[in-house]
Amino acid sequence: MSRPLIFIFTGTGGAGRKTTAHRIGQELGIEHVLSTTTRLPREKEYPDKDYHYVSPAAFEQMQEQQLLIENVRIGPVWYGIRYQELNSKLRSGKHVYLILNSEGASVFKKLYPEQVVRIFLYVSKPAVRERLEAKGRPDAVIEQYLDLYTEEVVYRTQCEHVIENMDLNRTLDKIREAIQSHL
């Protein structure tokens, strides 16, 4: 049996990575590996469903004990993936998916070059603004997303699959096709 694959949903902020990843993961029976974060849950987010929420002190302790495969700081917030969670799912033979920024996706590609498949999702910069405004995000948060857009969108040239997410159903079809091509 071949080794389980690690599908990484990456791309520009506001491109719908979480929505599409969760839908496809559920449909295809691919296990989600949660990120651990020091930020507070947003509206409609739940502990141990969307993220593992921990205090900055607990996160620092995980870093010191080398319990995280990768970790990244975005503004004042830390994110990371726990070795134990990933490895337990991979040992059981299950394909997994993660939702990561480009930095995290690059780390995983270096560590698991034969297993990682990166799916880069993006929308236009004006669409990012529209989506975030529709979600009621504060202007300061929207500006942070837009400031990172150019840096994030350049990463697509390094990914195995690049998909523009303007229509959810079409995007899901393209992701489904991309994933099936590796199974």
CATH superfamily of the domain at 6-34 and 83-180: P-loop containing nucleotide triphosphate hydrolases
The number of helical elements comes to 7
- What class would the helix/strand composition place it in? alpha/beta
| Strand segment tally | 9
Average pLDDT reading: 92
Architecture (CATH level 2) name of the domain at 6-34 and 83-180: 3-Layer(aba) Sandwich
- SSE succession: EHEEEHEEHEHEHHEH
Distance between the termini: 12 Å
Strand order of the largest sheet: 2-7-1-8-9
Main CATH class of the domain at 6-34 and 83-180: Alpha Beta
In the CATH hierarchy, the third-tier topology of the domain at 6-34 and 83-180 is known as Rossmann fold
- Describe the main β-sheet briefly: 5 strands, parallel
Low-pLDDT runs of 5+ residues are none
Q: Radius of gyration, Cα only, in angstroms?
A: 16 Å
Shape: globular
Q: Roughly what percent helix?
A: 40-55%
Beta-strand content bin: 15-25%
How are the SSEs ordered, and which strands pair?
Blueprint: E1 6-11, H1 17-28, E2 31-32, E3 35-37, E4 52-53, H2 56-64, E5 68-74, E6 77-82, H3 83-91, E7 96-99, H4 102-111, E8 116-122, H5 125-134, H6 139-154, E9 161-164, H7 168-180
Helix pairs in contact: 1-7, 5-6
